[in-house]
Amino acid sequence: MKLGRVRNIVVVAGAGISTGSGIPDFRTPGTGLYANLAKYDIPYPEAIFNIDYFSDNPHPFFSLAKELYPGHHRPNYVHYFIRMLHQKGLLLRMYTQNIDGLEKLCGIPDDKLVEAHGSFATAACHLCYTPYPAEEAKQAIMKGNVPICTFCAGAVKPNVVFFGEDLPEKYFQHAEDFPKADLLMIMGTSLKIEPFASLVNTVKSTVPRLLLNRDPVGPFERRPLRRADYMELGDLSDSVRKLAEILGWHTEIQDLMNSHENGLRSYTDPSNSSGTAASKQEFQPPQNSNKCLWSATKNPNILLLRCV
């Protein structure tokens, strides 16, 4: 049995944390984004996020961008669990691969968030990098037009990181996060894309790494695991809710979700019944897992992690 104090949690997250909001992940066979791109007439799935292909033909990405732009979906329980980590003073930083903006929408502050693959919040010319008003770019894209740089006439795109582009500067500004972490939580990611995938290997070897995912990924696919590695496999929302129940946080999170949603405008697409239902239905506590047990302490800034 291992007992440790946790107060500097780093969260590494991918598209799987947003599936509960009705947004498909990228790689799930049959339902993932890459499995449903035939309508965009591209040579291979990843081409839609390839900067060289975009330079030749930006239209497929802009067609997809209409669906990806923030505004159609709401944060789900997983997002609010991470916000609760912040409110408890336990979140050192969240590193996300997602471009859906749901982390910010649920209230995770900008200084606690690294959007490793960029976002739709800003836009620039893909050739000369001249900034372009993000709202004007969005309006053009939504009308089926390609926004054009007024300086060099290149195609403007949201500052979402494509294959072949550099990661945002902010990604490199917090190099001390991982050596400082005393718990690494890995959620809803395939750990297929570098350099993001290698982040999980930069914590100290004695630091617990907890994978909450559908399948083993990255270093969790190899045996033997580190002594401080733990996995909770299956539906991510269920796994996160288990942890919330064990911590005694579930009611707080549910109240936070309800109060925050009351203050949001109607961001959810009416056709997205799964995102709406996930945010409003009360969770029924599952049976406790004996793989990894968390408990709160009298000090609100300290969690106890006990794994067997």
From TrEMBL:
InterPro entries recorded: DHS-like_NAD/FAD-binding_dom, NAD-dep_sirtuin_deacylases, Sirtuin, Sirtuin_cat_small_dom_sf, Sirtuin_class_I, Ssirtuin_cat_dom
Annotated Gene3D superfamilies: SIR2/SIRT2 'Small Domain, TPP-binding domain
UniProt-annotated stretches for the region Disordered: 263-291
Keywords, ordered alphabetically: Metal-binding, NAD, Transferase, Zinc
Deacetylase sirtuin-type domain boundaries: 1-250
Pfam families linked: SIR2
Keyword Transcription regulation attached: no
Active site: H117 (proton acceptor)
Cofactor: record remark: Binds 1 zinc ion per subunit.
Keyword Transcription tagged: no
Annotated binding of NAD(+), by residue: 15-19, 25-27, 97-100, 189-190, 213-215
Cofactor dependency: Zn(2+)
Ranges of Polar residues composition bias in the record: 268-291
GO cellular component: nucleus
Role according to the record: NAD-dependent protein deacetylase.
PANTHER family documented for this protein: NAD-DEPENDENT PROTEIN DEACYLASE SIRTUIN-5, MITOCHONDRIAL-RELATED, NOVEL PROTEIN SIMILAR TO VERTEBRATE SIRTUIN (SILENT MATING TYPE INFORMATION REGULATION 2 HOMOLOG) 2 (S. CEREVISIAE) (SIRT2)
Family: Belongs to the sirtuin family. Class I subfamily.
Protein name: NAD-dependent protein deacetylase
